[in-house]
Amino acid sequence: MKSFRRRSATVNAGSMADIAFLLLIFFLVTTTISADKGILRQLPANDCPTKDCSSPINERNILRISLNSENTIFIEDKIVQLNDVQDIVKSFVDNNGSGSCDYCEGYKLNDLSDHPNEAVISLSHDALTKYHMFISVQDEISKAYFSLRAHYIKDTFGKVPSDINKDEFKLVKKAYPFKVSEVAVKRN
Asked: Which residues contact 71 (CB under 8 A, 6 or more apart)?
């Protein structure tokens, strides 16, 4: 009897490299790579804005805002709502004898900052604070400074913020410097 030896079936793999290369190009072209966006905040210059960086800051010129792990906002150990933060910061920074926010009714004028140049906002948060809450508080602080600066621009230059030039903006920043200290509280 004659035995037949069968040859195993083969697949021509000559064009496999071409197909893989074309698939790779296809996926590279059609896939969008999401770019992470950060906080649009410019870091301050390396120099100290005051004349002497080693000089202590008067306690009454520091407004302490803190967030705990349950996302509760405390300002000077009093619980406040997110929508009150802007008014509190504005009244603290711009102490022109008004004390204009509802929260500040219990404050005496000497509990507010001496001058806008002296005011410092200290923002601290727990390691378990939700990111969106921290950013929301930062936004309220920024809105307060923007509002104070816009009012200053209107009173001083008779313009809206988008119409001032670089030299005028330097004067505005000098009148209402954005001094925020951000600290994360470490957990053990």
From this structure: 129, 130, 133
